Amino acid sequence: MIGSGTVTSYLIRRIWQMIPTLLGVILLIFVLFTLFGGDPAEIIAGQNASAQQVDIIRQQLGLDQPWWVQLWIFFKEVITFHWGDSWATREPVAHIFLTRLPATLTVMIPLFLLTLVLSVPIALGVAYVRGSLTDRLTMMATTVALSISFLVYVIAGQWLFGFKLSWFPIQGWSPSVWKNLAVYVPLPVMLAVFVSLAPQVRLYRSFFLDEIGQDYVRTARAKGLTERQVVFKHVLRNAMIPILTDISLQLPGLFVGSFLIEVFFSIPGLGREVLLAVNRSDYPVIQATTIYLAVFTMVINLLTDVLYKLVDPRVVLK
Amino acid sequence: MSTVAAAASVSGAPRPRSHGVWNLAARRLRHDRFGMIALAVVGLYMIMVALVSLHLLAGDWADERGMHYANPTFMGPGPDDLAMIEPPPGHMLDLSAVDPLAPHYAEIERRTRELQTTVRPRVRTLPFGGDRYGRDVLQKAIKGSQVSIVVGLASAVVATFIGSVLGGFAGFFGGRIGDALEWLYNVFTSVPYILLVFAFAAVSGRSIASVIVILGLTGWTGVYRLLRAEYIKHSNREYVRAAQAIGAGSMSRMFVHILPNVSHVILVQLSLNVVGFIKAEVILSFLGLGVSVDSVSWGTMLNEAQTELILGKWWQLAAATFFMAVFVTAFSVFTDSLRDALDPKLR
Fold first, then answer.
1. How do residues A5-27 score in pLDDT, each as one tens digit?
2. What interface predicted TM-score (ipTM) does this complex get?
3. Which chain A residues are closer than 8 Å to B217 by Cβ?
4. Do A147 and B200 touch (CB under 8 A)?
């Protein structure tokens, strides 16, 4: 049993430790965009603006203030969630987040679950028959699959299944979640699952191999457990710890999504929005996404550490 | 200790030379057949990159020698789709009454004849086809390989250098310096990698150098983590304390004593990074955030290939994919062999 007191004090301490990191992220983004980015006033004003107009915008943004005042303005924006509007479209940044996130999640959640459901059994299977022809062929296939760029799979897959065979629409999106799931999501998800399977299987296979070689597996066999019990009760459960770590590392990525998938299939998600923002020098969108995803990543990491405790009673939270 | 000394003095014969770490690793590597094949392939690519860099190969990749989407030679010439446009039927209207240029017709004719123009014949087929402008796809792929590989190698060197130096300092000194560097590491790793790359790309230009800087400045964290652990481990070993006892300073201990003992880790990380950064460069260039438009890399080729495929012009996609897949496979296999050879305990 975990005493609730220890967990609470652990949580408080961890959240306390996040503050310097978060301040660092804010500082990093501030320095990056203030020192190296173009002049925001000129980006907003556009090419035909007069010097006077640029000056007015500069005043409004506080760019005529010394840097510490600018940093304070930036810091206030972060903690009050008040980012103002996108420079390119005048759309409030918060509104961009809320409207683009559902599309990203509609693609990423099925993709994430499907990859997990497929890669764990395949990895366990090939790890169990390690050294066999099946294992070596699978490993060779993953090496080759990994050497081909993700872009090539999507270009070729979109052409073959969308254009040549016309099994799926090439691109598109509808306001209805169910129609999206049924019509527009299958092709991108299928291609992305195919791509993410190779590295995932390789990684999880190595986790399983580490466990299969352990003494406790031999002990379990020696005391007469069936193979099924050895594999599912002992090997799988122990390998869940590194697998969980890997999943937690992937979770923040769910939100930017596979931005490439969104670009290829014209899915109006957050990843495509960030990319558009980069191309349009739309700083508020990039800054807000970066900082909030950093916060999200830190929270996920914390939750994973707490989850370890539930999965593995040997873990001590400190 | 004493037995060794005794044995040496008793025999008197020259002692068999002991093999160093690198010597043993090279020997292990030579016995790895796959690794050697991969090394040969990587070597060929490197020769190609060197030749392109010296302008001995694919120097005229930007020449528009062929027809618009010229077919590969083995497919034979395609239909002549650049044939003259048929003049519209019916007789031409005489506009000389209203055309303000009409009085100058004769003069224009005369002046035109004075100008020397050479019409370069465009070839109907190219060895592996042509792109939209009739540039040779094979030469483009060779030039693109040079750009992608140089970017991958250079950014891996930058990232590995930053990671090694910071990791070394954090692991060796610990304390305040270690805490500060750990904080920096936490800041960089708490932002999802791709967003970090985008944020850097948003404020930088579009050139080969800026891609190297972006990838180098964002990709050092993995090396840092490993090198920090190595330096923590090594800084308390006996040989380092012995060096300290005879008066070696911190810098000397870090770089003269410990560095050679962790250099194999750095080398493996370097080659792991090369593959990762080549893939990253390809994606950045594909998205238009990488090398500039007047340059060519595997990424920009794939970008063009996307629209060409619908027209049935598959050769640019095939060329870029082939050149990239062979290099990446060979380099990954070589990296694995290198790791096995340098650190047999790891597997």
1. 677 888 888 888 889 999 999 99
2. 0.82
3. none
4. no
